[in-house]
């Protein structure tokens, strides 16, 4: 590069305003992390997650984790779907908190969020749906998954109190890496909610300890570098990535992104403690809507049919030998 | 404006974690974190490397055409003095234009792109992605990618592709691939979402060249540093022409890069008044893009800043006649300067900008872009109230050629 430049130019540093607030070459990984909390103060919520993984282990199989968007295509239908999921074989349910700008999601989940927002879904209503689910089901862990802005605007303390009261067990917030743990992760752990972290193919061994430090409940391994609903992962690589993560944590490791069928679920279940499916369910849901994006008589059933297939896939793999 | 304690200097931010007060930060998916840390490290190394500065200097001079002139806008000054006299004040500031519209590619955007592309080369990244609103950042990125033989993909909201057609064509001619973004509101914010989605997918070989002082740390600080050449030159040029510093600075704000570039070198000169002009669209009580005036703190696109949004934290549609200002957020450093009260953030409507565009064209023979026309609209309001020895600098961040079709339509005559 410097070869492009006549030597006469080389002497002067041009940006006089540059004040080195950060020293050159520092490894930012060592900055801004708060030491791990040993255990959440109120483990009631995290217990529900632990118990569910314990139960799956006892049955010698991986867990099935399903994701649907709260309020999609309307609140009552999404509640009916939520209630149907455990009966169809889901072990843990993730409920999406709609957001206008989901920067890590593909078209299916983006559209689901916009459908929900269009019919007036908001954070208060989402927590209400969970409360109604919890009134009938005290055992299935509920994980709220979304982006930070709606939570930040709701108010972190108020949100944690209301989420806990509604029966939420854990949170996955896509745009909060460990560097921002002060924002929600640490308050959530103090409040007794699991903060479930995403580990990705770009999270190397150097970074893993930081990513795992304040996580609880389980670790969510994102099988691809990419957005939801896009590529199908290389299942062999996924299994070795899970192995690598397990060297660093006793927590269960579930795998998501790109799982679309019972066969995929079975392939992932071989190497992981759980399998997450989202976009595929939302695609099926979308396929049943009328031309104005309203639910039809087939909507709930179409989703549960796929969940049953996924559940059979997960259950077809015995993990007893490995245990 | 508030009871916040004033810092010793307004120019030392951000801290190590990228915070300007409560604003800024790194709110991104885990997949991107290693990239962002790699970028931060590479940038920290580059900015103390004389070879990097020498490259910047060389291409700034010979390729971009820097320094850009500081021009005494004599007829604009005379006109606004008449306005002042008519209102019984007999004042009227002496108005200077910082002529960023004369840069190669026609806007200030290229200053930042040059820095980022030289950095991408240092890092060995061969695939460059960018988001663009008005298309000026896209054109600048496409231009430097052509110059250095890099692959270039530009994400642009489908609505903006429609209203900034000349720039889409320019990008195509430069060999870039323009991807119209159909999601969300199909404008700049969605282009940024889509660029982030691309980056998450292609982390290993891709460099994301962000066009303004937004995004996760280190972008807001890095883009600012690359744009500070505007204010540094202005300082020196004003000393040469008037023997002293200016009394006030005015710049338009989309994300805030041309503004912070002009402002930053003057932030600690307490006597220099600083005005940032946001887009008030149809009016502040209607659809607009004035995040500081009409928004609240929130988190979007990797940083905490002021955002236009509803009660539930859902991002609102911004509106401005100018695609480059049509963004529901603002760079985090501006949010901080707003809260500290160091910079006064005001706004201009679509109609005010159109009027200023016409006035500047007729009086000075300079067709400004619609974005700096917003700054000019406020110069027309501020200058008559200042005394005649008041030196006011307005940043003409880009030229208006890209906007001619749209302006013609607004003024009721079609260009064939
Ligand atoms: C000429 C011009 N000025 C200003 C802007 C707004 O950007 P910023 O606020 O980052 O300077 C743009 C953006 O496209 C532009 O093209």
UniProtKB/TrEMBL annotation, chain B:
GO terms for molecular function: tryptophan synthase activity. Residues 87-398 form the Tryptophan synthase beta chain-like PALP domain. Transmembrane segments: none annotated. One of its GO terms (cellular component) is cytoplasm. The keyword Lyase applies. Its EC number is 4.2.1.20. Coiled coil: none annotated. PROSITE patterns: TRP_SYNTHASE_BETA. Belongs to the TrpB family. This is Tryptophan synthase beta chain. It comes from Microvirga vignae. The gene is trpB.
